[in-house]
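Entry:
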Amino acid sequence: MATQPIPDQLTLETQLGGPMQFHGLIAPSLPPDPIRSHLGYVRHWQGEEQLVNIYNAPFVVPSGVDAVVLAALLRAPPLQNKLRDWKVVVTGEQLDALIREVDPLVNLTATEVMDALQRLRMAGVSIDAPHARRRFSGFQFLSELRVSSRERVTDGFVVFNEASVQLSETVLSLHLFGMLNPPEAEGA
């Protein structure tokens, strides 16, 4: 059985029908079928070639509105302003308002928000830069996730009460500094 060559980022984006989001780590909106539980591609980033693998078996990799939910979480004020313990707590209404700030056209149900949070928590990313001075292994988008919700008995709708989310150090480093590793860890 012949193995498929690993596509470069442009080829993958052409196949998927849109650009990769959040520093090339979240796919554009994907069709529900087939389920893509893994994406792998080669990219050139900050002067080096990297092999990127995004996986979330057996579920779909983060895509589409997941990037909007992540961007909304990054706008929420942290409980502590520490890179290693960046935790946010948001109510459903607060997260909805932050999502609308990021993209006013996105209107998500409570179930869709919880699904996006779950995909971001469960997905893993590995980045291998074989020719770089510092090789990078892997991370998750969210280090911790606690969601409080309830189902309304009268109509069966899910009500999203509150989420407590700890964003991973790598996601924060990408967001705040545009690099995979925090500045103090670069020389380590």
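Residues 7 and 15 are 10 Å apart (CA to CA).
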